[in-house]
Amino acid sequence: MRAAAAIIFLSALAAKLEYGLAFTSLNTRHSILSPTFNSRPEGMEASTCTRFTSPPQKHLIGPLKSTPDENETEKIDITEDERLYRIRLSRATGIEWGTDLSFSFVYVREMDPSGAAKRTGMISKMDQICELRAVGEEGAKVIPLIGAPFDSVMGAFAGLKKTTKEVDLVFFKGSKDELKALCTGESSSKEGDGKIKITVIQNKGAKDEQTRVIVADEGANVRQTLVDEGINVYQSVTRWTNCKGKQLCGTCIIDVAEGSMNTNRKSMDEESTLRENPDTYRLSCVTFAYDDVTVETFPPIKAAQWTR
Question: For the chain, where are the alpha helices, taking DSSP H only?
Answer without folding.
Answer: 2-19, 116-120, 150-158, 176-184, 222-228, 238-241, 268-273, 303-306
